[in-house]
């Protein structure tokens, strides 16, 4: 159980004092099935009033102001601006109390902070965004030397559950040949099992970011989390990071 109750997660990583982070789960809200109960996505067909209640409860519980994005599987990273829902898949902030937030249900949430606790960021990395460079774009937007960054990989679909077609493997190998080690041949002809966690680590290492933590949780097999592959009509959980006020 986290400091905020329910079964929300607090990342285990050596983030400096002043950096806070949280990953919500399905528990603690008012959404009804199949979105039960703490759905934070306002684009999945849930009752808007329930989503609004859940988001307000999140803000009050954490004591920060989440800045939401309209996520489109892009490589766009923007500065978080309260009240502005930018079309992007990553945001960064240097303002205390403003939480960078991403919503997922199998895609990989990635949290960033610098060692001096002056800037934070959150990225939504599905395979398209990951291959398209969303992590590299986030690093560029942060404008912090790679060696000064800490990164945490949140819950995503695991390597034993994420079967992909040849176009996914080819997209990654075209940029980083070493990405071949993140794919295992599937029992289904022409397909592979992909490790999003390993692919993220490979891409981060390529730009000099080696202090990478987290990984290992599978949204498909862990019922605490929403999973689009488990049920296409489902909610979204949030991964958030912010600087203390």
TrEMBL record:
UniProt GO molecular function: copper ion binding; hydrolase activity; S-methyl-5-thioadenosine phosphorylase activity
What does the UniProt keyword field contain? Hydrolase, Metal-binding, Transferase, Zinc
Please tell me whether the keyword Zinc is annotated for this protein.
yes
| Keyword presence, Cell inner membrane | no
Q: Which CDD domains match?
A: YfiH (cd16833)
User: Which transformation does this protein catalyse, written as a reaction?
Assistant: adenosine + H2O + H(+) = inosine + NH4(+); S-methyl-5'-thioadenosine + phosphate = 5-(methylsulfanyl)-alpha-D-ribose 1-phosphate + adenine; inosine + phosphate = alpha-D-ribose 1-phosphate + hypoxanthine; adenosine + phosphate = alpha-D-ribose 1-phosphate + adenine
**Which family does this protein fall into?**
Belongs to the purine nucleoside phosphorylase YfiH/LACC1 family.
Q: Which NCBIfam families match?
A: peptidoglycan editing factor PgeF (TIGR00726)
Protein name, as recorded: Purine nucleoside phosphorylase
Q: Which organism is it from?
A: Stutzerimonas stutzeri (Pseudomonas stutzeri)
């Amino acid at each position: 159980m986290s400091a905020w109750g329910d079964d929300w997660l607090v990342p285990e990583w050596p983030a400096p004092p002043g950096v806070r982070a949280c990953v919500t789960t399905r528990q603690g809200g008012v959404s009804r099935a199949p979105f039960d109960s703490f759905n934070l996505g306002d684009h999945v067909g849930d009752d808007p009033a329930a989503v609004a209640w859940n988001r307000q409860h999140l803000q009050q519980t954490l004591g920060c102001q989440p800045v939401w994005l309209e996520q489109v599987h892009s490589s766009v990273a923007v500065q978080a601006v309260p009240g502005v829902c930018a079309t992007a898949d990553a945001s960064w902030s240097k303002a205390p109390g403003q939480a960078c937030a991403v919503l997922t249900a199998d895609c990989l949430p990635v949290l960033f902070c610098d060692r001096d606790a002056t800037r934070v960021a959150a990225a939504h990395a599905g395979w398209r965004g990951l291959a398209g460079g969303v992590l590299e774009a986030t690093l560029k937007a942060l404008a912090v030397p790679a060696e000064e960054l800490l990164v945490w990989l949140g819950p995503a679909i695991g390597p034993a559950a994420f079967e992909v077609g040849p176009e996914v493997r080819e997209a990654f190998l075209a940029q980083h040949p070493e990405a071949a080690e993140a794919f295992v041949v599937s029992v289904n002809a022409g397909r592979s099992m992909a490790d999003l966690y390993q692919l993220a680590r490979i891409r981060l290492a390529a730009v000099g970011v080696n202090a990478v933590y987290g990984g290992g949780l599978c949204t498909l097999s862990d019922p605490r989390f929403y999973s689009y592959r488990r049920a296409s009509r489902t909610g979204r959980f949030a991964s958030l990071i912010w600087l203390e006020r």
